[in-house]
Amino acid sequence: MTDKYELTMLAAALRDGVAERRTTFEVFARRLPPGRRYGVVAGTGRLLETLPQFRFDARACELLAEFLDPDTLAYLADFRFSGDIDGYAEGELYFPGSPVLSVHGSFAECVVLETLVLSIFNHDTAIASAAARMVSAARQRPLIEMGSRRTHERAAVAAARAAYLAGFSASSNLEAQRRYGVPAAGTAAHAFTMVHTRQDGPDEPAAFRAQVDAFGPGTTLLVDTYDVATGVANAVAAAGPTLGAVRIDSGELGVLARQARDLLDQLGATQTRIVVSGDLDEFAIAALRAEPVDRYGVGTSLVTGSGAPTANMVYKLVEVDGIPVRKRSNHKESRGGRKEALRRSRSTGTITEEVVYPAGQPPADTGPSRMLTTPLVRDGQLVAGCDLVAARERVASGLESLPWEGLKLAPGDPAIPTLLTEP
Amino acid sequence: MTDKYELTMLAAALRDGVAERRTTFEVFARRLPPGRRYGVVAGTGRLLETLPQFRFDARACELLAEFLDPDTLAYLADFRFSGDIDGYAEGELYFPGSPVLSVHGSFAECVVLETLVLSIFNHDTAIASAAARMVSAARQRPLIEMGSRRTHERAAVAAARAAYLAGFSASSNLEAQRRYGVPAAGTAAHAFTMVHTRQDGPDEPAAFRAQVDAFGPGTTLLVDTYDVATGVANAVAAAGPTLGAVRIDSGELGVLARQARDLLDQLGATQTRIVVSGDLDEFAIAALRAEPVDRYGVGTSLVTGSGAPTANMVYKLVEVDGIPVRKRSNHKESRGGRKEALRRSRSTGTITEEVVYPAGQPPADTGPSRMLTTPLVRDGQLVAGCDLVAARERVASGLESLPWEGLKLAPGDPAIPTLLTEP
Questions:
Q1: CA angle B365, B367, B372 (to 5 degrees)
Q2: C-alpha to C-alpha distance for A368 and A247, rounded to whole angstroms
Q3: Using CA atoms, how far apart are residues B359 and B352, in angstroms rounded to an integer?
Q4: A24 close contact with B: CB closer than 8 A
Q5: FRET pair for B175, CA 20 to 30 Å: which of A22, A116, A235, B423?
Q6: Which residues of A are less than 8 Å from B175 in CB distance?
Q7: Residues of chain B with CATH 3.20.140.10
Q8: DSSP letters along B140-190, please?
């Protein structure tokens, strides 16, 4: 989990003595993905969970001996991050320039964390930010994450976690349940209906009977393998009017949901819920608001960040031995120096401005505001928890705090401006 | 790595007796990503490597006992895939409907592989397909993959592998080197230059001297932290005219590359190469063809599939006990039955058509053609290797076999049509 250049920089730094300089690296996004009005910080918990395991074992050092000198290898063999980390609590909203994470320590120990930190934040934040838009589009209707198959098998687990963090109710991914306690959901695919095919043709009733037999009438039956109306009738025939739910995975979902609702009601299955899935994104979810849909299953668009598969956060050196530093090239300017942030709001709780200021120098008159920078690691030890449920609540209250334009799905500017104050 | 519904289907199938029916599941993409003219099959090697480890240990079974019955748990405890797998060799091109993988076995053993198979193929194929377009855009100039930080930390390793497969020369990712033998590359980031800042300001010369001191004049110096012209002069001053390369990571890359080339030549560093990086995709690479660029570093666009982060492959049941089956819903039609494929070409080697036919029934008169379906697994044992270098050569010859329109970067139809023959 380390890019080669981190270790070559380390080697050169150990050799010329800058390795022990005190540095601060800052993680931030120069801008939100095009048209997005807010982002959701995610990955903090996974980073804190991973940090203590970020070591270089004997086998790794052996392989690295190909291009590293003995001093560097000795440093890595003993490596353990012993610095401090501050950052936004997981689940906070963020905006352009928000210092979502600040890593303080020797240059040597900070520089080797770059890839790990960015991989986790760029992935998890991209998913959580897209997921939050879907949650707000769905209003109070529950969302189920089912995109594992559309992304890398390990990324899928982190994606399920990020979706839950952002307000999804459940995930198809069992490893996310085992590892992070994300409720798992899922009953059957079209293959289960089709495997009941006989020589003389399909036998959907047999498939439904088998599923009800195994899991009771409260199960969810997938009714669109052949014909939705017939599927709904077969489903109620198999499970009776206490059938838990039907799922429709293809076709014109709004039209089919209405037809299914009418048919279910006629058959007395008035409490049976309707789950829709199949190429849903935040816009499709919003478009189904007026339809009798009880739950949404979301796959591809969730795990690919709905058009923004990476958050484009960067990990930049901003301070060396107390001296603010910054790169001077075009279009990549960032303010030097260690920073903290707070968020101003009206008395109603609606947020108005993100204020990023030199560490320890908050603006004098803030009015109602909330400190965003919190201690996460001190002297290499975790001082903050990775409570996923608390992070989930933070996303929910963050969405409530947005001005109403901030929740619009259409492309627009960030919901609040970011003010960088001078030292 | 399993979605919950695979195990609920398994439980219901074991209970009603369909678990032992002989099935074939097929992996294919209904269409290429919008505008793409070909895809590159990737993931086969990773699947074959992972398959023998796909087991359910005691701890997993204990957790699954929450929703599974004892018979299902007993089945999983003994699980080992014992069926057959056929498929396209890794690195082959594919087109809409190409049966890139066919999994044959009992319903029980095939259905539980869905998420694993699709996660690997959808991720790796998306990356390799984007990478191949970049390779063809770069003509013979080498490409370095440096996108680890823009994607999930484990996906990054698979992305580096997929990029190498598609023709990239190297990757920043050390784990990809350790695990797959992908050559690793990388020297320094802007942080290394900036950490040499003194009280009175930046000290780029000190940073360059430190790097040359550690790695010799053949290293690559990053010259755009402050000013590219000064950076180039400082670089040659530090390393002498045998400096290996300079890297420019921001700004108007074409203009800066020309300025750097002129300056390097004036300073006698005529053999020093120029590496450019920073938001490159296949279009930006092509746009730099006329500029004095020697190597490209590609990050974000590579690991996000350059606009198509997932290949949208599906895993569909196509045959049950010899009976072809298919789903009948709108827009998702696929041909039932076990299939194989061959690719027709002209005598020049230029390909003309993909022919997908019922297994064992190839078209009578094929003309020049090549069989695409090959045995990968028999009775649960691997019968094909996972040779990454061979797969890489397959991509190269695949690109050579495309009709010229197939290599155009602009959106268009698939380079060759797919013909599905009837039984």
A1: 95
A2: 46
A3: 21
A4: no
A5: A22
A6: 1-2
A7: 4-127+308-390+401-420
A8: TS-EEE--GGGS-TTHHHHHHHHHHHTT--EESBHHHHHHH-PPB-----H
Strands, sheet with A323-324, edge to edge from the N-terminal-most edge strand: A323-324, A313-320, A22-29, A101-106, A84-87, A374-378, A381-382
CB pairs under 8 A between A and B: 316
pLDDT at B367: 86
For chain A, positions 303-332, list CB contacts with chain B under 8 A: 303-305, 309-310, 312, 315-317, 320, 323, 325-332
CA distance A418 to chain B (A): 24
Give CA–CA dist A383/A363, Å, rounded: 26
Within chain A, how many helices (H) and strands (E) appear?
Answer: 15, 19
**pLDDT less than 70: residues of chain B:** 329-334, 366
- Give the residues of chain A that fall short of pLDDT 50: 330-332
Determine whether the interchain pair B330/A1 forms a contact, defined as Cβ–Cβ distance below 8 Å: no
Dihedral, CA atoms, A9, A15, A18, A21, nearest 10 degrees? 100
- Cβ contacts of residue B78 below 8 Å, gap of 6+? none
Q: How many CA atoms lie within 13 A of B65 on its CB side?
A: 10
Among chain B residues, the shortest Cα distance to A17 is held by B210
Could you identify the residue written with the tokens 């992972």?
B50
What are the percentages of helix, strand and coil residues in chain A, rounded to 5? Answer: 40, 20, 40
In angstroms, the separation between the Cα of residue B346 and the nearest Cα of chain A is 36
> Per residue in B244-283, is it b (16+ CB within 10 Å) or e — as a string?
bbbbbbbbebbebbbbbbebbeebebeebbbbbbbebbbe
pLDDT at residue B38, rounded to an integer = 98
User: Quick one: pLDDT at residue B330?
Assistant: 47
What is the rounded distance in angstroms from the CA atom of residue A44 to the CA atom of residue A256? Answer: 41
CATH 3.20.20.70 for the A187-293 domain, yes or no: yes
Residues in chain A: 423
- Cβ contact A29:A312 at 8 Å: yes
How far apart CA A399 and CA A414 sit, in angstroms, is 13
B8 chain-A contacts, CB cut-off 8 A: 186-188, 211, 214-215
DSSP letter at B406 equals: G
Cα–Cα distance, B392 to B385 (Å, whole number) = 14
* Ranges of CATH 3.20.20.70 domains, chain B: 187-293
Structure tokens given for B74 = 């007993």
Please report how the helices A114-137 and B155-165 are oriented relative to each other, as an axis angle in degrees rounded to 10. 100
Q: Which fold has domain A4-127+309-420?
A: nicotinate phosphoribosyltransferase (3.20.140)
**CA B295 vs CA B2, B185, B248: distances in Å:** 40, 12, 11
| Interface pTM, i.e. ipTM | 0.96
C-beta separation of A27 from A121 below 8 A: yes
Distance between CA atoms of A13 and A320, rounded to whole angstroms?
Answer: 13
E strand intervals along A188-310? 220-222, 245-248, 273-277, 295-298
pTM of full prediction above 0.90: yes
Q: How far apart are CA A75 and CA A55, in angstroms?
A: 11
Q: To 5 degrees, how large is the angle CA A328–CA B151–CA A128?
A: 100
Q: Where in chain A is the domain with CATH 3.20.140.10?
A: 4-127+309-420
B332-354 residues labelled b (16+ CB within 10 A) or e (exposed): bebbbbbbbbbbbbeeeeebbbb
Residue A120, number of CB atoms within 10 A of its CB: 26
Is residue A89 within 8 Å of residue A384, measured between CB atoms?
yes
Count of beta carbons in the 10 Å neighbourhood of residue A135? 26
Chain B nearest C-alpha distance from A374 (Å) = 24
pLDDT of residue B331: 47
The topology under which CATH files domain B4-127+308-390+401-420 is: nicotinate phosphoribosyltransferase (3.20.140)
